[in-house]
Structures are given as C-alpha cells and as structure tokens.
C-alpha cells in the first residue's frame, strides 16, 4: 500500500472519512489511497534511517507488494517483519514474493485495516500512506514503546516534527521520529543537602519547564526526549547545569553537571 496522491484524487481522499477504509464495492475494499510502489533505493534508505538491526521487529503499515518487509529480513536480517494492507491482492502478491525469496516464518503479511491492526510489538514502523491517515494514526504511533523508530515516506505526522529528514534521489523525502517517553509532571532528588524539584511540560519530543534548588529557579532550555533519554540545560544563578538521564519506571538515573558532576536519581511525584 505504498501511496501517493495527485489532483482530484487527492481532494476526494482528503475529504473522505476514515470509515471509507471499511467500505467495499463489488466485494473489494475501497482503498483510502492508490497503490504506488516505493523505489528500492527509498526502501533501503528508510530502513537505514531507522537504524534497522537484527534484533528489530519491523511493521510496514500499508505494505503493498511487500518490498519493505522482505528487504528488512533479507538485507537487514531482522528477526521478524510484518506487513498489513487493506487490499487482498497486494497481500497475495507480497506472500508470493516472500515465498519466492525463501524467507520462511520471519515474514508475515496480513489483510486488514491499519486503524484496527495491532502493531504495538514493533520496534520499527515504516509507512507510505497519506497526510490524513498519518495524522489519524499519530495517537497510536506516539503511544508505542519509547525508542520505537517511525519512518514515513513523503508524509509528515502533523504537529509532531520529525527528528530527522533525509532526501533520496533529489525527489523523495523520508522522515524519522523516535517515540519519546512521557515525562511531563513533577520530579525531585537530592544532591547533598540541596533538594531539587522540577516541573516538566512536554509536547512530543520537546520539553520545557522549571528547575528549583536551594531557593533558586531557572527555566529549562534545549529540553528534548529521545526514546527514554532526557537532556536539557538550565541556569541557576551563575551556574549552568546540564542534565542527561534515562527513564526507568518512575525514576530517571541522570548525570547532573555544573560546577561538579553528580549522579542522581530523580523520582516522579505521585
């Protein structure tokens, strides 16, 4: 289900409700977007941009003829790859191609609706869908496990800005997002006799807030979350403090660097 829009077709599809994916005409599903193949160079670039490695589980949403799923196993040796497509003809083609390539049970193709399909086991998600479908999938994508990499060909995820953009062959744009952990809230820790508290506000991978310590406070700058890793800087008086930590459950193990470096464990307030 590698897709691209043009002209009147784009206008009609953008106005169509998501339920159009569930309709059928003459026993065949009405596709939200037309089938357009992804060039092999783009397939390779998408999987490279995701940092695909052998321990990954790749899900391709709108898998079309199966080329991304097949390449993930054949060229990147992932342990498992799954494709889902609304069109049963594409699913049959993909299964035949996987059988011809001799990929065995490391590859699976399912006929189904990406809005209902469970892709939560993914560590890498690839897509070539549409602006509308991407936006409607965004809540599910942003709630995947922190660190899951999402790569989209041509289309963005609305207000969620990509972590990286790559152009392939001077025509194709591909975008990478790394699902951030959810860190908004109140946190606290101690360094010697000093008690620190911070309030974090989060919009996707961007973090703002305020750090308080020993009667001083400062706004958090350059705050970002990549997977489970939180980094920011803040100035308390004359001291510039840098925070670099990783989330584990309801705590963040971090290095706090200022006049000296301290190892701390920040705990989330109930």
Detailed description of the structure:
This protein is α+β, with helices and mostly antiparallel strands and 270 residues long. It has 2 domains: 172 residues, Vaccinia Virus protein VP39 (Rossmann fold); 84 residues, Beta Barrel (Lipocalin). 20% of the residues lie in helices and 40% in strands. The strands form 3 sheets. The chain has an 8-stranded antiparallel barrel. It is elongated and about 65 Å long. The termini are far apart.
Reading side by side through the largest sheet, how are the strands ordered? 10-11-12-14-15-16-17-18
Query: CATH H-level name of the largest domain... which superfamily?
Result: Vaccinia Virus protein VP39
Q: Strand tally, please?
A: 18
Q: From the structure provided, what is the oligomeric state, counting identical versus distinct chains?
A: single chain
Rg, Cα atoms, Å: 22 Å
Ends apart, CA distance between termini:
44 Å
Give the integer mean of the pLDDT values: 89
* Low-pLDDT segments, ≥5 res: 1-27
Q: What is the CATH C level class of the largest domain, in words?
A: Alpha Beta
Please state the second-level CATH architecture of the largest domain.
3-Layer(aba) Sandwich
H/E order of the elements? HEEHEHEHEEHEEEEEEEEEEEE
| Beta strand % | 35-45%
Question: Structural class of the helix and strand makeup?
Answer: alpha+beta
Shape: elongated
Major sheet attributes: 8 strands, antiparallel, barrel
Our count of helices gives 5
Q: Write the CATH fold name of the largest domain.
A: Rossmann fold
Count of the domains: 2
Helix content: 10-25%
């Amino acid at each position: 289900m590698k897709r691209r829009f043009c002209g009147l077709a784009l206008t009609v599809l953008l106005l169509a409700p998501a339920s159009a994916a569930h309709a059928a005409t003459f026993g065949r599903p009405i596709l939200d977007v037309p089938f357009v193949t992804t060039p092999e160079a783009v397939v390779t670039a998408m999987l490279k941009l995701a940092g695909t490695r052998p321990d990954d589980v790749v899900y391709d949403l709108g898998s079309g003829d199966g080329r991304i799923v097949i390449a993930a196993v054949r060229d990147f040796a992932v342990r498992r790859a799954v494709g889902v497509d609304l069109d049963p003809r594409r699913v049959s083609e993909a299964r035949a191609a996987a059988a011809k390539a001799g990929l065995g049970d490391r590859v699976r193709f399912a006929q189904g609706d990406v809005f209902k399909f469970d892709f939560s086991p993914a560590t890498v998600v690839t897509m070539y869908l549409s602006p509308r479908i991407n936006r409607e999938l965004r809540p599910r994508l942003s709630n995947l496990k922190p660190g899951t990499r999402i790569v989209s060909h041509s289309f963005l995820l609305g207000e969620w800005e990509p972590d990286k953009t790559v152009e392939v062959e001077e025509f194709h744009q591909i975008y990478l997002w790394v699902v951030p952990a959810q860190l908004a809230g109140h946190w606290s820790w101690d360094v010697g006799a000093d008690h620190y508290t911070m309030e974090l506000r989060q919009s996707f991978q961007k973090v703002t807030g305020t750090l308080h310590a020993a009667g001083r406070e400062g706004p958090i700058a350059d705050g970002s979350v990549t997977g489970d890793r939180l980094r920011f800087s803040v100035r308390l008086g004359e001291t510039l403090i840098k925070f670099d930590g990783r989330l584990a459950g309801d705590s963040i193990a971090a290095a706090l660097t200022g006049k000296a470096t301290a190892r701390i464990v920040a705990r989330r307030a109930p």
